[in-house]
């Protein structure tokens, strides 16, 4: 009788679907089933994912609010040659989420960090945007305060690379207005609910999208892709 294949000790950075469950990889499923512990932002959301694929494993929450307390606990487990999977609510851990803190702490302790790549909202949005993707910069979420948001955008005025932002659906129009004021009427692409049933990709100039979205109430997950200044100046 064959014995189950053992898993190498270390911290596994496991990408999970951003909407369509069919996007999970076979390797990710194998790792999630075999590790000693899964650290996740929300145990309920990850529990639903595991249940869908018939996986039972130990879950522990790891998020912005408990990362300082949880990190030493997870590092202690890893030091005992255990395998731990780190997952976010959706997509690739460590990008605009607290997973970066644990990854860096593990590296500082000379613990092996192993990528299990897969879905990523920022890359999905970039490749469908139609904007140059050979060079780009990921800005994530802008600060909430108006002054800090404006300061961040002013730094990007002469940025020639395509820029990718995350934003909540209810604040997309605010972001577009700020981009128009600070960066000008760039080409912009609003990607909503990527890989999900109501996936939508809206392309145009900032002014055009503001007019188009004026009477709409957006819902769901949103990524905004903005053209760099060289692309704008060629028009």
UniProtKB/TrEMBL annotation:
| Cell compartments where the protein resides | Cytoplasm
Q: Which reaction does it catalyse?
A: cytidine(1402) in 16S rRNA + S-adenosyl-L-methionine = 2'-O-methylcytidine(1402) in 16S rRNA + S-adenosyl-L-homocysteine + H(+)
Q: Name one Pfam family in it.
A: TP_methylase
Q: What is its EC number?
A: 2.1.1.198
An example GO CC term for this entry is: cytoplasm
Which PROSITE patterns did the record assign?
RSMI (PS01296)
Q: Which domain of life is it from?
A: Bacteria
Q: Would the keyword Cytoplasm be found if you checked this record's keyword annotation?
A: yes
Q: Any signal peptide, and if so, which residues?
A: none
Tell whether S-adenosyl-L-methionine is among the UniProt keywords: yes
For this UniProt record, the keywords arranged alphabetically read as follows:
Cytoplasm, Methyltransferase, rRNA processing, S-adenosyl-L-methionine, Transferase
The enzyme class is transferase
What are the protein's GO molecular function terms? Answer: rRNA (cytosine-2'-O-)-methyltransferase activity
Listed InterPro entries: 4pyrrol_Mease (IPR000878), 4pyrrol_Methylase_sf (IPR035996), 4pyrrole_Mease_sub1 (IPR014777), 4pyrrole_Mease_sub2 (IPR014776), rRNA_ssu_MeTfrase_I (IPR008189), SAM_MeTrfase_RsmI_CS (IPR018063)
Give a short account of what the protein does.
Catalyzes the 2'-O-methylation of the ribose of cytidine 1402 (C1402) in 16S rRNA.
Please state what the protein is called.
Ribosomal RNA small subunit methyltransferase I
Q: Which organism is it from?
A: candidate division WOR-3 bacterium
Gene expressing this chain: rsmI
């Amino acid at each position: 009788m064959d014995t189950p294949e053992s898993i190498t000790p270390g911290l596994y950075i496991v990408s999970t679907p951003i909407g369509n469950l069919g996007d999970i990889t076979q390797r990710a499923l194998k790792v999630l089933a075999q590790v000693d512990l899964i650290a996740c932002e929300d145990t309920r959301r990850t529990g639903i994912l595991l249940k869908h694929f018939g996986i039972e494993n130990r879950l522990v929450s790891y998020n912005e609010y408990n990362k300082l307390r949880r990190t030493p606990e997870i590092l202690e487990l890893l030091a005992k040659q255990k395998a731990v999977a780190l997952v976010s609510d959706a997509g690739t851990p460590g990008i605009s989420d607290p997973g970066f803190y644990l990854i860096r702490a593990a590296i500082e302790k000379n613990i092996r960090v192993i990528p299990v790549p897969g879905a990523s909202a920022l890359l999905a949005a970039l490749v469908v945007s139609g904007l140059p993707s050979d060079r780009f910069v990921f800005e994530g979420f802008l600060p909430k305060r108006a002054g800090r948001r404006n300061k961040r955008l002013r730094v990007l005025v002469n940025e020639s690379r395509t820029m990718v932002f995350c934003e909540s659906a209810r604040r997309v129009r605010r972001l577009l207005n700020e981009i128009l004021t600070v960066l000008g009427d760039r080409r912009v692409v609003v990607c909503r609910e990527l890989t999900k049933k109501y996936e939508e990709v809206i392309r145009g100039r900032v002014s055009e999208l503001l007019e188009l979205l004026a009477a709409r109430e957006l819902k769901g997950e949103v990524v905004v892709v903005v053209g760099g200044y060289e692309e704008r100046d060629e028009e």
